[in-house]
Predict the 3D structure of the following.
Amino acid sequence: MRSRLFWIFAIIYSSLHNIGSGSTSTTLKRPRAGDPFDTFPKNFWQEFSSPFTDTPEDEELEVTETTTHEPFPFFADPYTTVNISTQLSSNVYLHCRVNDLQGKTVSWMRRRGEDLTLITFGQHTYSGDSRYSLEFEDPNDWKLLIQFANERDEGPYECQVSSHPPLVLLVYLTIIVPHVEILDERGSATPEKYYKAGSTIELQCVISKIPHPSSYITWRHGPRLLNYDTSRGGISVKTDMLPGRALSRLYIANANRQDTGNYTCMLGNEITETVVVHVLNGEEPAAMQHANGTRYSARPSTMVVFFLLCVYACVYGRTVATGHPFGR
C-alpha cells in the first residue's frame, strides 16, 4: 500500500515538473534511461486502476446454492399390504402407522371392487355403521376399530395419506367362522339324546377354527345359563382352550324330567349349536338308542299281525300240497 502511494506522488511530481518547464509538445517520447517509471512493475497500471483494497489475491468468493425439502410422510412398517384374521363376533383393530405426517390427513376406506367408501377422515368417522370408529394411539398409529365383526366385514381396506402422490396401505381382513359340534359321552354327534331318570347327562361341545379365543364358552338349558347355576346342584362345566380349538364338557348328575329340553353351547352370541335331551321315567334301556337318538318299541298289535301272517302261510302251504288245509 505504501509503495503505491510513493509512485502516485512521483507521477504528480513529474507532471508538475513538465508544466513548469513550459513544455507543450504532445509527442509521446520513450522514457529516458534512468527514468523512475522504468522500474514500475508491468502490471502496475492494472493494479493502480483497481480499487485500493487489502483483499488477498488468492481469496475467492464461493456461492453455494442450497435447497431444503420438507420431510415426506412414510409408513413406519416396511410393507404396504397386510393380512389380518379375526373370528366371528370379535373386535378387531386395523393398524396404520405413519411417520412425519407434516399436517397431512390419514383416511380409512373400504374397497368393494372398483368402489371406495369413506369410513374415517382424520379423527372423524363418516361411516353410517356405528361399529366402525377411529382410535389414534401416540405417536403415530391411526387404528380403525371394527366391533362385533361379521362375515360382511371381510375384504380389503385402505389407509390413505393425503400426500402427493398419496400413500396407500392395503389391509385385507378375513373373518373366520368357528365350527361347533355337540357330542355325547361316546363321542357321537346327534341332534337328540335320551337318558334314564337318575342317570348323568354328559355332553361335549367341540369348537374348531378359533384363531384368537375372545369369549367364554357357555351352556344354556333353554334361556337358563348353566355355567354358574347353583340353584339345581349337580351341574358341572369344564372348558379347555386348546391351540386353534376348544372343548367344553357339561355334566348334570341325577337327571330328572325337568332336565328335558334344548341344550345350547355358545361361543359369543352368534356361534351356537343345540341338542335336544329327553329324560324318561320307567323306560327300559332297550327302548332307547343312545347312539343315534332314535327310539323303537315293538307294539302288541304288530306282533299279532306277524303271528297271523305266519299261520296263514303255513295253512296255505299245506293246502296247496295236499288239497286239505290240515293235511291227511
